Amino acid sequence: MTTPVVAPAVPSNPIGDLSGKTAVITGGSKGIGAATVARFVDGGARVVTSGRSQPDSLPPGVEYVVADVATPDGVDQLARRVREILGDVDIIVNNAGASTPHLGGVLAIDDAEWVSDLGINFLAAVRLNAALLPAMYTRGRGSIVNVSSAVTLSPPAPMLHYASAKAALATYTTGLAAEAGPRGVRVNTVTPGNVVSPGADAVRRAIIDAVGADTAEAGGIPIPLGRMGEASDIAEAIAFLASDRAAWITASNLVVDGGQVQTR
C-alpha cells in the first residue's frame, strides 16, 4: 500500500522578487489578503491595503485604508489614497470578497444578495482597475491579479451567487488582458481551492453542519496533495504572477487547489 505524502508548507524566506514595486491589495486584513500583504512586504514591495475595519496589526511599513470597496464611493476613496501614498502603482491585487451561503438553495438567494455579491466579488475589481489603469497605460507597464474561487468550477447551489460573481471576474480578466497586453499591462486570475481562512472556514462549517458531513473537504472529495490549502499557498501564487518572473504570462487562470478540482 502506498503511504500518502502530504505537500510541504510554502517556504517563508523572502526573495526580493517585488523589490521597488508599489502595490495595492484589497481585503488585506485577514486570510489570503493578509498573507499576500506579508508576502509582498517580504518581497520588497511598498504596499497599501484596505478593508472595512481597521485590523489589530499590520506588517511594518504597510499603509491601511478603511474603505468598503463593494461601493463606488469606497473604491474612489481607496484609489485617491493610493495615489497620495504611492504615486504610481505597479501592481493591483483584487482580493476582496465575501458571501453568505443559502442552504435553502438558489431560490433562497434574494435579489439584494445577488447584487451585493456582484458588488464585492466582481464590481469592486472592475472599478478599482478603471481608476488605476489609465496611469499604468500611460507608463506602459503594470500587473493585475484578480482572485477568483474554485467554486466557479463546480458551483454548489448555496453559493451560486458567489460563484457567478467570481466567474464573471475570471471572464472579465481574460477580456481585460487582451486589451491591456499591448499597452504593457498583464492581467491574470488566481483561483484558490479549499483554503484555511476565517471566511472560508465559516462557509464550510455552515454547509458541513447543514448536511451532517464530517470532513472539511468540500463534498468529501480528497485533495491529492494531502492537506488543506494555507493562505500562504495562494499568496505565493499571487506574488509570482504579479512579479516580473511572470513577464510572459497574461490572461491565465492559475488554479491553486492541491489537485482537488482535477479529481472531481
Automatic annotation (TrEMBL):
InterPro entries the UniProt entry points to: NAD(P)-bd_dom_sf, Sc_DH/Rdtase_CS, SDR_fam
A Gene Ontology molecular function term of the record: oxidoreductase activity
Domain of life: Bacteria
Keyword NADP found: no
Keyword terms of this UniProt record: Oxidoreductase
Family matches, as SUPFAM superfamilies: NAD(P)-binding Rossmann-fold domains
Database matches in PANTHER family: OXIDOREDUCTASE, SHORT-CHAIN DEHYDROGENASE/REDUCTASE FAMILY (AFU_ORTHOLOGUE AFUA_5G02870) (PTHR43639), SHORT-CHAIN DEHYDROGENASE_REDUCTASE FAMILY PROTEIN (PTHR43639:SF1)
Family under the similarity heading: Belongs to the short-chain dehydrogenases/reductases (SDR) family.
Protein name in the entry: Short-chain dehydrogenase
Lineage: Bacteria, Bacillati, Actinomycetota, Actinomycetes, Mycobacteriales
